[in-house]
């Protein structure tokens, strides 16, 4: 019991329970603790751009084979498209089978459109330029801009170019590689300091939510929330479980290995809050640096499994709740449009509602004003979205690593079995070594 209480996981769980109690007992005070959760997430986001840059550049420069890096990228994109398509299809299937919106008989003329104005405005901006505009936004205006704005995809693009150029410099590039290696070690040390504040962040986030909305708010539109949670659970344990089994690993053991990160995501409803720790843990699992560095940041925008389930489920729910008839063509249109709009989710304020609005704008048959119906339960659905997305991206990294032969299976099994405890502490740097010193958690392989 003492070991549990002193562990980060135990402290996070304690903070979560305390937040619920405080929210119920003193909602006015609890609502004022929101800055604790916001500050924790901001601290994490502060180091994400530099950390992603260092991991990706070091991974590519250390790989020595740009063709291998290219294969990882292509395989990752193929995997993302297959899995997100399955997730979108699952959302449609569940919505048509369980009909969570049937019987609500909502008159759209009675809904308050003012609550949707900000979301619809962002949706218009998101869809105004189409696919070309989305791709153009991946290119930063300057090399420094993505670090200032925190745009992970732009950082990733610059890091890939930087890493490829650095790998072609040979001996001349080694001083830069060592500098990036040293910088990454500093960033991981900073991460170790920040993550100790996770219990405070969890306390603030949970206390605010319970104090502001109350536990009873779960009753409203409870069927939609229940169906969504069940759908995410089915996708995680059935689909992702099979993927892990095909790769030769256990999903349950992976979830146990990531329990601290999952607890933080559960409380903050943000997978960004654990991105640095996830990168470190997957590298400690024995997955090659370049694979982790490419798959995880890219997956945060292109592999949103639970988010994909949400889009199609919510779209059909709104149609059912407003008694809007939808044809097979409409269902296929939802699937096709969501394949595109879901890729722009990361980094958009109120992303879930915004992306759903963008999807519905492309399907006139469904009244977009119906989005008001899901606003009140969006936070609760956000918990499952964040958890499902994080698990999906971790499984994707393992799958792509196994597919490309970039995972040390002996190391991975030892870590998942608890024989090699996870550690974010970097290995000592040898300043006299001629070879690049591997980042912490990565085991060199011939």
Automatic annotation (TrEMBL):
Source organism, top-level taxon: Bacteria
High-level lineage: Bacteria, Pseudomonadati, Pseudomonadota, Betaproteobacteria, Burkholderiales
One Gene Ontology MF term: fumarate transmembrane transporter activity
Stretches the record annotates as Disordered: 421-446
UniProt-listed InterPro entries: Na-dicarboxylate_symporter (IPR001991), Na-dicarboxylate_symporter_CS (IPR018107), Na:dicarbo_symporter_sf (IPR036458)
Topology within the bilayer: Multi-pass membrane protein
Subcellular locations according to the entry: Cell membrane
Positions of transmembrane segments: 43-64, 76-98, 152-169, 190-215, 221-242, 300-319, 352-375
GO BP terms in the entry: L-aspartate transmembrane transport
Function of the protein: Responsible for the transport of dicarboxylates such as succinate, fumarate, and malate from the periplasm across the membrane.
Annotated protein name in UniProt: Aerobic C4-dicarboxylate transport protein
UniProt keyword terms in alphabetical order: Cell membrane, Membrane, Symport, Transmembrane, Transmembrane helix, Transport
One Gene Ontology cellular component: plasma membrane
Organism: Achromobacter pestifer
Record-linked PANTHER family: AEROBIC C4-DICARBOXYLATE TRANSPORT PROTEIN (PTHR42865:SF1), PROTON/GLUTAMATE-ASPARTATE SYMPORTER (PTHR42865)
């Amino acid at each position: 019991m003492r070991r549990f209480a002193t562990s980060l996981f135990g402290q996070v769980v304690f903070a979560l329970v305390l937040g619920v109690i405080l929210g119920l007992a003193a909602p006015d005070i609890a609502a004022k603790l929101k800055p604790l959760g916001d500050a924790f997430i901001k601290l994490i986001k502060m180091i994400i751009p530099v950390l992603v840059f260092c991991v990706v550049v070091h991974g590519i420069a250390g790989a020595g084979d740009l063709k291998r890096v290219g294969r990882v990228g292509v395989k990752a994109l193929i995997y993302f498209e297959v899995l997100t398509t399955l997730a979108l299809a699952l959302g449609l299937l569940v919505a048509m089978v369980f009909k969570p919106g049937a019987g609500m008989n909502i008159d759209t003329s009675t809904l308050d459109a003012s609550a949707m104005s900000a979301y619809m405005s962002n949706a218009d901006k998101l869809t105004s330029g189409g696919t070309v505009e989305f791709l153009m936004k991946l290119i930063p205006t300057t090399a420094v801009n993505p670090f200032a704005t925190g745009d992970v995809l732009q950082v990733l693009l610059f890091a890939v170019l930087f890493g490829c150029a650095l790998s072609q410099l040979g001996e001349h590039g080694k001083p830069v590689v060592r500098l990036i290696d040293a910088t990454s070690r500093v960033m991981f040390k900073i991460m170790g300091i920040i993550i100790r504040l996770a219990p405070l962040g969890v306390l603030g986030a949970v206390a605010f939510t319970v104090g502001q909305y109350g536990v009873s708010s779960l009753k409203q539109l409870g069927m939609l929330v229940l169906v969504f949670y069940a759908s995410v659970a089915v996708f995680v344990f059935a689909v992702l479980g099979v993927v892990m089994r095909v790769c030769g690993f256990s999903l349950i053991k992976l979830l146990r290995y990531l329990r601290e990160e999952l607890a933080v995501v559960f409380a903050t409803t943000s997978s960004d809050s654990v991105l640095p720790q996830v990168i470190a843990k997957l590298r400690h699992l024995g997955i090659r640096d370049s694979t982790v560095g490419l798959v995880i940041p890219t997956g945060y925008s292109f592999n949103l499994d639970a988010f994909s389930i949400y889009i199609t489920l919510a779209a059909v729910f709104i149609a059912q709740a407003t008694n809007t008839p939808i044809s097979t063509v409409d269902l296929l249109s939802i699937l096709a449009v969501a394949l595109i709009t879901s890729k722009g989710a990361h980094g958009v304020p109120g992303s879930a509602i915004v992306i759903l609005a963008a999807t519905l704008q492309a399907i006139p048959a469904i009244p977009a004003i119906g989005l008001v119906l899901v606003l009140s339960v969006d936070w609760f659905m956000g918990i499952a979205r964040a958890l499902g997305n994080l698990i999906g991206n971790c499984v994707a990294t393992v799958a792509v690593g196994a597919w490309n032969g970039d995972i040390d299976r002996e190391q991975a099994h030892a870590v998942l079995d608890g024989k090699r405890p996870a550690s974010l502490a970097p290995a000592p740097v040898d300043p006299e070594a001629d070879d690049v010193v591997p980042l912490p958690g990565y085991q060199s392989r011939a």
